[in-house]
Amino acid sequence: MVAPTAGPYTEWGTIGDQLSELLKLPVLVENDAAAAALGEFWSRRVSREQSFGCVYLSTGIGAGMVFGGALFRGASFDAGELGHLSIAYDGRPCPCGNQGCVERYASMTASVDTARAHPALAARLRLDGSVSSAYDTLARAAVSGDPDAFGVIEDAAGYLSVAVTSMVNLLDLGRIVLTGPGVAVAGSIYARRLRSHLARTAHARSRHEVQVELSAQPRNAAGIGAAALVVQASIAPGHTPGMR
Ligand SMILES: [Zn+2]
């Protein structure tokens, strides 16, 4: 089972216990970005020796890291909150309490907000409706050559690249997969920007390349990862805490 957002460990436990009781089945609870990372790790046959990370772009931004074949979960299942990595100490305030969180600049929500504040673009694309549908309209326009739409996505990719470089440098990652609904249409724009940014800024660039790949199933990555989680729990139970 994949929970849509992270929360205190006690809440995760409660969700798992309640579902397990209702379904009369064992239940696993995992963050969407972390599950996506595990799914990509398995489907790509990533070496256990490789430090592997996944960036999950959605209405927020998350990340998952797999080291030695196991998800890194942190002290309370809250590891990978890439969206709340600040890229500006006096930047936009975030509900999390910090300022300049990259999620406030590069998430699907942020890009839609930026596009809606651009009168000509908003009028041309008619960006009403949900964030998801407005973002898909914006992303399609960006890849179809609308210069204003491309500018919004390219800027978001630039902000995201700064944050991902920090993640790469902190963990010395060797391979990154971009996934989530935010890269389903315009993923090539994000991947190109991230590759060029890392080639100039990754601290370990003289020692190894940081591979940047796009998910083959970005909209379904979390669900596929949830299935991988169940498989891993059955063959490597030590890597999957919290089985209920
Ligand atoms: Zn934040």
Automatic annotation (TrEMBL):
<dbReference type="InterPro" id="IPR043129">
    <property type="entry name" value="ATPase_NBD"/>
</dbReference>
<protein>
    <submittedName>
        <fullName>Sugar kinase of the NBD/HSP70 family, may contain an N-terminal HTH domain</fullName>
    </submittedName>
</protein>
<dbReference type="GO" id="GO:0016301">
    <property type="term" value="F:kinase activity"/>
</dbReference>
<dbReference type="Pfam" id="PF00480">
    <property type="entry name" value="ROK"/>
</dbReference>
<keyword id="KW-0808">Transferase</keyword>
<dbReference type="InterPro" id="IPR000600">
    <property type="entry name" value="ROK"/>
</dbReference>
<dbReference type="InterPro" id="IPR049874">
    <property type="entry name" value="ROK_cs"/>
</dbReference>
<comment type="similarity">
    <text>Belongs to the ROK (NagC/XylR) family.</text>
</comment>
<keyword id="KW-0418">Kinase</keyword>
